[in-house]
Amino acid sequence: MGDLLSHLSLGFSVAVTVQNLGLALVGCLVGTLIGVLPGVGPIATITMLLPITFGMPPVGALIMLAGIYYGAQYGGSTTAILINVPGEVTSVVTTLDGHQMARQGRAGVALGIAALGSFFAGCVATTIIAALAVPLTKLALVFGPAEYAALMAMGLAFAVVLARGSILKSIAMTIAGLLLSTVGTDLDTGVERMTFGYAPLSDGVDFAVIAMGLFGFAEVLRNLDAVEEREVVGGAIGRLLPSRADLRQSAGPVVRGSLAGAILGILPGNGAVLGPFASYAMEKRLAKDPSRFGRGAIEGVAGPEAANNAGAQTSFIPLLTLGIPPNAVMALMVGAMTIHGIVPGPLVMTRNPSLFWGLIASMWIGNLMLLVINLPLIGAWVRLCRVPYRLLFPSILLFCCVGIYSVNNSPSDVLFTAGFALVGYAASKVGFESAPLLLGFVLGRLLEENLRRALTIARGDLSVFVRRPICAALLLTGLLVLVIAVLPAIQKSREEVFTE
Amino acid sequence: MLPRTLAILLGVAGAVLVASSLVRKGEAHAHWTLRGPIFICLGVIGFALTIRMPGLAVAGPLVTIVGGAASPETRVKELLVFAAAITAFCIVLFRFILHLPIPVLRIPGVVVI
């Protein structure tokens, strides 16, 4: 406990410097902005802003990027409530009851409870990260390459199950992602793989290119197809502060949502997206009168909003303690860290304690800032929602182009990105999700490296993965998750969860 | 070894998907439009070809205007003004505030910014 306090005070001493406070504020503002604007997500934005962080100190860079990520969760709920368009995937559930509340003239209360719930969840998640960091890092140090490989395989299994649509399709996308990650020069043998003798490919495909293609440009293409129907709830937003009765009603859901989101967020394989769905389903089951849900029940806003914010923050845990990015945004964080020569993993905490604890402390500060940014300034954000998409998307295109060019100062990267955009667009048209592909790509190189190391240590004996107990348990969990998801009964309820 | 294994697995997954599509009746395909992909790709390709030389001052409006034509709701005059404004904004933000090494306007022998 004393340790925890001294760690946190170190963190706060780093996070409250003028520069870092400023960067946290910039991150939160940009995050809220892109959360409010439909069609720009945190993945594309962070890719775009990565070149800007080259010249910053590493702590500041990570603080800003983290702010963008959880800021987007706040902003996403604003559009979900006011215009029934989820700004981010994680706020899809909020549209159900949040928008209904807005139609009943309780938009302000919905926004207020979303912000307060998120703030509470942010506090819980920050504490959980601080408390879990030390024990998990110790655990990570006993992990050998075999365990790492197994953990990543489990993460991929989770990613497959958590993606929407057909399981087989998401398995195919994951494999395609793994395959893409093997393009380039083999680090151990120096052999060029799948480069077709084309020089720019010998370094492999850049992560930024794939991320921007699949989530920046392709998103624009998808949005262009959707007929624009955005009805901003007219008239007054109403009072922002929830009444005492509202607060009493939401207290339970917020606490349960925070815990559920925080636990799911820790799972490798982007468990964070599941948090809001789980929370909504849980509240509906616990409610005395479930029929209120979908008609403006405040619990249906409070719980999922808390869950998505908690999950966004605890998804830093696998990255900071194990060095395994659980989703694409965290993979970009890996990029930001390696640019500054920091290898993500269990050693970050001992070698760069000020970076580690500074980042964690800044998350709490960032949440406080978001509360302040979101509530009084809500009018300004609402006005931004009214920017027509026909002007929004050319700007997104331009910013994406500039961003992707700046990563390596290479025009050919821009062309590759356009190629991936077409692939991503066509894939989504026929029901393939891009998220598993990206995660497969992210984990591919790490997975291969650890697999190879494990096999070298075991002298090529594959049974090493079953003989080591932790390793076997991890692989079994992954397998179990896949099998359960394929079972017909579960498959049906999974569909229901996603269509609801 | 890994790439080959993966490629085979991917092929198997694809074959199973194709086979199951012949057996099971799925949903009808969503509506395809070509206008979006064509204009957006043309815009981005234009950007890639012009960003080194003559630079962002040309590449910016190019991607905004050509890409902007992707939407049927686009209004020409509005888009032209907007393209100039957003390009100016980008130049100021990325080149002069954030100091990224992006060529703004480079015509050899005439001007280099």
Question: What does this entry look like structurally?
Answer:
- The complex is a heterodimer of chains A (500) and B (113).
- By secondary structure, chain A is an all-alpha fold.
- Chain A is built from 22 helices and 2 strands.
- In chain A, strands 1-2 form a two-stranded antiparallel sheet.
- In chain A, helix 4 runs parallel beside helix 15 (353-374), helix 8 (207-225) crosses helix 18 (411-429) and helix 10 (274-286) packs antiparallel against helix 11.
- Chain A is globular and about 65 Å long.
- Chain B has 113 residues and is mainly alpha-helical.
- Chain B has helices at residues 2-23, 35-50, 56-68, 76-97, and strands at residues 106-107, 111-112.
- Chain B has a two-stranded antiparallel sheet.
- The radius of gyration of chain B is 22 Å and the shape is elongated.
- The model of chain B has no long low-confidence stretch (mean pLDDT 87).
- The chains are: A mainly alpha (500), B mainly alpha (113).
Secondary structure: helix percent of chain A: over 70%
Query: What Rg of chain A do the Cα atoms give?
Result: 22 Å
pLDDT average of chain B, as an integer? 87
Report the portion of residues of chain B in β strands: under 5%
Task: Give me the Rg of chain B, rounded.
Answer: 22 Å
- Major sheet of chain A: order of its strands? 1-2
* Approximate helicity band of chain B: 55-70%
How many strands, which pairing sense, and closed or not: the largest β-sheet of chain A? 2 strands, antiparallel
Short description:
Chain A is an all-alpha fold and 500 residues long.
Give the helix/strand layout.
The complex is a heterodimer of chains A (500) and B (113).
Chain A: H1 2-15, H2 18-36, H3 42-49, H4 58-83, H5 92-142, H6 145-162, H7 167-181, E1 184-185, E2 192-193, H8 207-225, H9 244-266, H10 274-286, H11 299-314, H12 316-322, H13 328-339, H14 347-351, H15 353-374, H16 378-385, H17 389-408, H18 411-429, H19 435-457, H20 464-467, H21 469-486, H22 488-499
Helix pairs in contact in A: 1-15, 2-4, 2-15, 3-4, 3-8, 3-17, 4-5, 4-11, 4-13, 4-15, 4-16, 5-9, 5-11, 5-12, 5-15, 6-7, 6-19, 6-21, 7-19, 8-17, 8-18, 9-10, 9-11, 10-11, 17-18
Chain B: H1 2-23, H2 35-50, H3 56-68, H4 76-97, E1 106-107, E2 111-112
Antiparallel strand pairs in B: 1-2
